[in-house]
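Annex B, item 7. Sequence and structure tokens for protein A, then protein B.
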Amino acid sequence: KNGTGTLTLAGNTPKAIGGTLTVNGGTLTVRDGSGGIGLQSGSTVVQTGGRLNIVSSVTSGAVTVQNKGTVRLDNAASKLTAAVVLVNGGGTLSGTGLVQSTGALHVAADGILAPEAKLTVAALGGVTLADGAQFVVTLWGDGTGDIALNNSLLYVQDGEVHIEPDAMLRVTILHGFEPSIADIYTIIKSEQEITGMFPDQVLSNTMYRFDVVKTDMHTIALMNAKAIVPEPGTYALCQAVGVLALAVLAKRRRSKCSGQTESKKSS
């Protein structure tokens, strides 16, 4: 699949590709009819801004997502079955549903794993967030600011979870939701032990700071949300720096104009 636009595969019989399915641009949507059968391929590569949207199911050998490519599971019934899933630099694996693998789910540096609601992973080779990998969590509400409708959850049903020291956690808050200090949001739940950890605090896009805590050896959660408001002294410092910068810029402009005037006189 090359170029822009959307190609949709649908129906009740398997769509089989013996070699490699490559999505280089635009969107390939795999949608079933009443039979629930999707796409089967020897291997799958999604890259160069391409998008594989799985509404039903995809069965593949190795699945590689990279270079602005995205694989998204559309709903709770969506399923990706693969020998191994590699999310390389610039690639994104997102959505909700089930990822099954006889190998591993590996997110490399600059790769993104972004569950939407609950993303279940059963990977015999485990789940690894490498140094520089990004785990993106979303919290969203009903628009009133008070009620949390859902939050991202990675549930690892099978396989170990390993978080390398420089793996990154990002938190995005949508629809004006305002978390409370009493709220606890489970973001990773594993049936086996989780090794490694994110930094112990994270700042959201809306300036809420959360503690990142292992509540037990199988669970990582966000808690103790606190809105970060700059202190008056910080505002004063920023204003002083701004005034100083403007003064320096004005002086440079005057010096430049003076130099140009002298140059014209001498000529």
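Protein B:
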Amino acid sequence: MRLTHVTLVIEDLERSVAFYESVLGAVVQRRTTHAELRLGDCRLALCTRQVLDAFVGVPMPPPDGKTVGGVVSIALVSEVELNQIIDRAKGCGGRVLKHPFTPEWGGRSAWIGDPDGHWVEFTVRK
């Protein structure tokens, strides 16, 4: 398994894209309702809470002043591995936010919430 990208929950897409392009030299790879920027071998995704809520289909808890919003996305080798991880997460206090599905870019994806409420996306790229 490997970390493929990090998603930051942001308020203003244009402002955030400009910031990461300027500060880190990030290059925009995709821009729709969210933005994906290339940072070396990793991607930084910028997404508003509203867009992320609509994509996952479960509202993200509002900020409580103690935590910063974000999502970790982890690439897997196979759909079998994806299903095993979802089963293990459920057994370890995780919550399935979105069962495995086929996203617009292909492959398979599923979302879980860890025991602290952090969102983790697991993907199998094809």
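Comment on protein B: The mean pLDDT is 85.
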